[in-house]
Amino acid sequence: MNPNLVDFWPYLILVLAGFLPNEVWRVLGLMLARGLDEDSEILVWVRALATAVLAGVIGKLILFPSGALTTIPVQVRIAAAGLGLLAFFLARRSVFAGVAVGEAVLIAGALAFSP
User: Fold this and answer.
1) How many whole angstroms separate alpha carbon 65 and alpha carbon 77?
2) Fewer CB atoms near the end CB (10 Å): N or C, the chain?
3) What is the C-alpha separation between 65 and 59, in angstroms, rounded?
């Protein structure tokens, strides 16, 4: 076997075990959601639940980080989240702008406060 191809087996496993099973559920969800009213009570509840779960995960990452994130001071993590949220709203609800600004602040803070 080509030695260059041997280096790519982790990516193949990642696609087979991570990406493809997720895509099956996404396509199934799209097929089942056709014709549903966007403003129905159940979908409003589902959106609220998804938002609450995401907020919980973000809060956990900020307040109780693991791995390399523990080396960044909590004030920097809170500032990154706050400035990312501000950028999201200032850029007309652009998720890309919010994530980019938050990540830039996090990286700058990590560089500034690295031991």
Assistant:
1) 10
2) C
3) 9
